[in-house]
Amino acid sequence: MGCRFTKCKFFSCIFFLAWTYIISIVVWHIKGRYNADRCHLDFNSLTSRTSITFDGEPPTYAEIAQQYPNLTLGGHYSGPQTCNPEQTLAIIVPFRDRDTHLRFWLYHMIGNFIEQKLSFTIFVAEQEGNGTFNKGQLMNTAYKWALKQDLYDCFVFHDVDMIAEETQNIYHCKDNAVYNLSPLIDKFNYSENSIYSNHLTVGGATAFKAWQFDRVDGYSNQYWGWGGEDDDLAMKLRLRRIPLRRAPFNIARFKMIRHQRDKGNPVNENRWNLLQIKNIRRRLFLKSDGLSNLQTQITKIFFLPTHTHITVRVSDFVPIPKPTTKPQQNVTTTTTTTTTTSPPPPVTSSPPST
C-alpha cells in the first residue's frame, strides 16, 4: 500500500511539473509576442515644434475632429493598428471660460500624442457657474470618474494653456516616481527657477500612476483661486516619500498661451497658511482633504469627437472624516446628477455650456 502511495505521489509531481513547464512556455511566448508588437519610436523622426504660435483664431472643434479622424467619440485614440502602446493614458484638463485656449490645446496636443504612438483619452473638467475657480476639485472629480471608465495605466494632469514644443518628450508614467513633463516654459525664458530646481512643483503637465495619486489622496480641495494646489501636492509627495522626477531639459520645453488673470480665478491669499507643512501633514495623514472627502457633483457629460467634456459643480463644504479604528467604507463618492451619454450632441464650435 505504501509503495502504491509513493508511486502516485511521484507521478503527481511529474504531472504538476510538466503542466508548470507548459504554462511557463505559453506565457513566455505570449509575452514575447506582445513585446515584439510593442510600439517603438524613432526619436530622430519625431518633430520639433518651436514655431508654434497663437495668432489668430484656432480651428473649431469640428475642424479639429476632421483633422484627426482616428479619434473615437469621447476623445479616445487606441493607438496605431500596427503595434501595441506600452501604456494607456487618461489626460485630464481643468477648464473654465478658456474656449480659445482649449481649441489651441486640442489642435496641437492631439497631434503630439498620436505622433508618440500613445493610447489615450482626453477628459476636460469644466467648473459650473461663476464662483471662484477650484482646480483641485476638478482634477479629483475627473480622476475618480475616469477610473470607472477604463483601466488606465497613467493619469496626466495638464494645464489648458501649456503646449509641448518637443514631440520627443514622451507622455508616460514611471513606476517609481511621479513624472513632471514641463519643467521649462517660455514665459520664464526656459530657465530653471528655484521652485523647479528643488523639485517642489507638479504644475503644468505631470504624470501619475493611480497608486501614487491615491497614496497622497489627490489634490487638496481647499485652494480657491490661483496658486497653491500644485505646491501642496508636491509637499504631500515628499511626506509620502514618493520621488518627483522631471523630463530631460533638452526636450522638456513648453509654450504658455498668454492671457489676463480670470475674474473668477483671483490670487489665493490664503495659500501660504494652507501650505504650512504642519497643516499639510495633518490633512494628509487624517485623510481630511482630497479624494477621501470630495463632495462635488457631475451635472453634465458630453462625449465629443475631440474629448469627453465633464461639467462639475464644486463644493464649498469640505467635511472632515471622524477618526475610526475600522476601515472607512464609502467615505464620499462623486454623485452624477445628469449624465448625457446617448445620443451624443453634435460637435459645435464651442464646448457645451452650463
Unreliable runs, pLDDT <50, ≥5 residues? 29-34, 194-199, 319-354
Instruction: Write the CATH architecture name.
Output: Alpha-Beta Complex
Average pLDDT number: 81
In DSSP terms, counting alpha (H) and pi (I) runs of 4 or more, how many helices?
Answer: 9
Total domain modules: 1
The biggest sheet amounts to: 10 strands, mixed
Count the beta strands.
13
Q: Find the CATH topology.
A: Spore Coat Polysaccharide Biosynthesis Protein SpsA, Chain A
Beta fraction of the residues? 15-25%
Overall body shape? globular
Multimeric state: single chain
List keywords for this structure.
354 residues, alpha/beta, Spore Coat Polysaccharide Biosynthesis Protein SpsA, Chain A, ten-stranded mixed β-sheet, three-stranded mixed β-sheet, 9 helices, 16% strand, disordered C terminus
Task: Summarize the helices and strands and which ones pair or pack.
Blueprint (H helix, E strand, L loop, with lengths): L1 H36 L23 H7 L8 E2 L10 E8 L3 H17 L3 E9 L7 H13 L6 E5 L3 E3 L13 E3 L3 E2 L8 H4 L7 E4 L1 H6 L13 H11 L4 E3 L6 E4 L14 H4 L2 H10 L10 E7 L4 E6 L21 E2 L18
Parallel strand pairs: 2-3, 2-4, 3-12, 6-9, 7-10, 11-13
Antiparallel strand pairs: 1-3, 4-8, 5-10, 6-8, 11-12
Helix pairs in contact: 7-9
What does this structure look like?
The chain is α/β, with parallel strands linked by helices and 354 residues long. The protein has a single domain, classed as Spore Coat Polysaccharide Biosynthesis Protein SpsA, Chain A, CATH 3.90.550. It has 9 helices and 13 strands. The protein is 31% helix and 16% strand. Helix 3 (99-115) links the parallel strand 2 and strand 3. The strands form 2 sheets. Strands 1, 2, 3, 4, 6, 8, 9, 11, 12 and 13 form a 10-stranded mixed sheet that branches. It has a 3-stranded mixed sheet with strand order 5-10-7. The termini are far apart. The longest helix has 36 residues, at 2-37. The protein has helices at 2-37, 61-67, 99-115, 135-147, 194-197, 210-215, 229-239, 271-274, 277-286; strands at residues 76-77, 88-95, 119-127, 154-158, 162-164, 178-180, 184-185, 205-208, 244-246, 253-256, 297-303, 308-313, 335-336. The chain is globular and about 85 Å long.
